[in-house]
Write the structure tokens for this entry.
Amino acid sequence: MSGCNHDCKNCKTKCENDSTNLLVKTNKESHIKKIIGVVSGKGGVGKSATTSLLAVAFAKMGYKVGIMDADITGPSIPQAFGLHEGIVGNGNLMFPRETELGIKVVSINLLLDDEKKPVVWRGPIIGGAIKQFYTDVLWGDLDYLFVDMPPGTGDVALTVFQSIPVNGVIIVSTPQDLVSMIVAKAINMAEMMKIKVIGLVENMSYFKCPDCGKTYEIFGKSRINEVAKENNIEPLAKFPIDPNLAKLVDEGRIEDYDLPDLTKLVDACEKL
Ligand code: ADP
């Protein structure tokens, strides 16, 4: 269509390319105020850790929080919270598992009969599972649903953006990826989908020696401020490399972690 600006959410014209047609609705028993996606250009940068820490921070502030683990081929949320028992349902809806702080969690790992089995599914099937995590889960009343997005900018990430009404995304990266185009691609994808980029988190930004207190930038000099400025987004947090975080994740005790300074990140999500 001539003159199309691809901003389907705000366009009044009825047309066959309307991407909002693909949005699915959740069930009558679920009322979710804000949906925030946590994305990264590639895997292993701390996207799931950041999703979990954010959910813990909001739960500790008294908000009703859920996590949808949309990283179907690399699900790591249940492990971080020590959840291993399978999800049950009533034939109509699935009931999420709850963490000690009351965070509601849905993940493919809680639906498999063996957590170690890989999910060897093609894109459309994975996309279908993610849509069901939104439509067929009894989320109840939630203030925030955090979505641990599939890494990268491929087929599955596209399905999530097109089918779930995500209000904004937080981009997680390491200092190394901030040098390459990986982060810019993730930012550009959100912008192309007309989804607000809430801001940028630099994970594994530095290591503070527990003996002398000196700080080392192991993965290279921090570039979060520069990259945020270049892309006209907010730098929201820098997380250190912390062996204690990795240990608590491995032990399923992320809720016991002493949270880093999340003020800017929390404020930005609240303002959304
Ligand atoms: P992603 O979701 O991007 O694939 P994860 O959050 O699963 O990445 O993190 C990958 C691994 O790195 C996990 O074992 C996690 O516990 C660990 N990790 C993440 N962030 C940190 C950090 N800041 N310090 C130490 N370990 C971390």
Notes: The domain at 29-270 is CATH 3.40.50.300 (Rossmann fold). The pocket of adenosine-5'-diphosphate is lined by residues 40, 43-49, 74, 76, 203-204, 239, 241-242, 245-246, 249 (CB under 6 Å). DSSP finds nine helices and twelve strands in the chain. The first strand starts at residue 31 and ends at 40.
